[in-house]
Amino acid sequence: MSPSMSSYKSPVVLLNEDNWNVWRTYYRGRLMSKGLWYIMSGSPPPSSRGNESSAATDTRTLADDEKAYGLLIESIETSQYQYIEHATTANAAYTALSDHHEPKTKVDRLALLSDFYGMSWNMKQEPLPEFLARYDVVLRKLRDSDQSITSGMAVDRLLQLMPWELRH
Fold first, then answer.
1. The dihedral sign for the CA sequence 140, 142, 147, 151
2. Are 103 and 112 in contact (CB under 8 A)?
3. Dihedrals φ, ψ of 2, to 5°?
4. Neighbours of 43 (CB within 10 A)
5. Is the pLDDT reported for residue 1 higher than 50?
6. Residues 111, 144: one domain?
7. Does the pTM exceed 0.85?
8. How far is CA 136 from CA 7, 26, 130, 154, in A?
9. Could you tell me if 38 and 72 lie in one domain?
């Protein structure tokens, strides 16, 4: 008997110091699946339900913010609590985590460029899918930090890292 889609549980991704890009996508998906992404995106709350007053809409929005904040707390490791301890809303907590994990300074950007150009791959120790995932994370971080990495540069670098027999 195969499990139904309703019984499928997606794996929980806990934010730590090394997985911001993966976690950010995971958290967005969690909020979207529960209809709470509007809290983070700055979109207006979903239309009022029937005769719902503006006060009732505000109360519902506050409750949704608390749910989103609770989901955020549940999906981070305890080592990350220090960054959100002063946040009072889900958006403030997410911003605090983003400020900590996103590369902001020139030094951060130089470190990313160093990671990108210093990256290597030993095909005997690391399977191709794992290497490509690692490469993708560094590339996304570079693009998110406003580095002018074109698609051509990314492909050129990837081909440089590949053994000759895989370049065809």
1. negative
2. yes
3. -90, 145
4. 9
5. no
6. yes
7. no
8. 31, 16, 10, 10
9. yes
Q: Which residues pair with 76 in a beta bridge?
A: 15
**Residues 114, 73 share a domain:** no
User: For 63-114, what is each residue's pLDDT tens digit?
Assistant: 999 999 999 999 999 999 999 999 999 999 999 999 888 767 778 778 888 8
| Domain range enclosing 151 | 106-166
DSSP of 67-85? HHHHHHHHTB-GGGHHHHT
User: Within this chain, do residues 147 and 77 fall inside the same structural domain, yes or no?
Assistant: no
What number of residues does the chain have? 168
Residues 133 and 84 in one domain: no
What is the full DSSP assignment across 99-167? HHHS--SHHHHHHHHHHHHH----TTTS-HHHHHHHHHHHHHHHHHTT----HHHHHHHHHHHS-GGG-
Domain count for the chain: 2
Nearby residues of 27 by Cβ (< 8 Å), 6 or more positions away: 13, 15, 71, 72, 75, 94
